[in-house]
């Protein structure tokens, strides 16, 4: 199975059905008018969960097993809390 790569242009949100923090991160990015690709991972998890988690570990540079899984162009952010903190920090230092 081929997994979709994180975008090099916009945020990437790996999401799954029924995940409240996935919804929160999508709402946050929309509220801040930040472009993102949404990747539904239900099929990945059903077909080959271990291979998907290995793919994420390789892309993130560390193990991450909870959703959402958020990347920004060029690097791994984390989940909802890390994404919110990063956006708030960027806003605080915006000129």
What features would you highlight for this structure?
95 residues; alpha+beta; Glutaredoxin
Description:
- The protein has 95 residues and is of the alpha+beta class.
- It has one domain: Glutaredoxin (3-Layer(aba) Sandwich), CATH 3.40.30.
- The protein contains 3 helices and 4 strands, in the order βαβαββα.
- It has helices at 20-31, 42-60, 80-92; strands at residues 11-15, 36-40, 69-72, 75-78.
- The protein has a 4-stranded mixed sheet, with helices on both faces.
- Strand 1, helix 1 (20-31) and strand 2 (36-40) form a beta-alpha-beta unit.
- The chain is globular, with a radius of gyration of 13 Å.
- The mean pLDDT is 96.
């Amino acid at each position: 199975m081929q997994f979709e790569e994180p975008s090099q242009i916009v945020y990437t949100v790996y999401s799954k059905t029924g995940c409240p923090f996935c919804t929160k991160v999508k709402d946050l990015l929309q509220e801040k008018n930040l472009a993102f690709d949404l990747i539904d991972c239900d099929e990945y998890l059903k077909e080959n969960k271990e291979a998907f988690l290995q793919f994420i570990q390789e892309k993130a540079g560390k193990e991450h097993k909870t959703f959402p899984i958020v990347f920004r162009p060029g690097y791994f952010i984390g989940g909802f809390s890390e994404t919110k903190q990063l956006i708030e920090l960027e806003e605080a230092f915006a000129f």
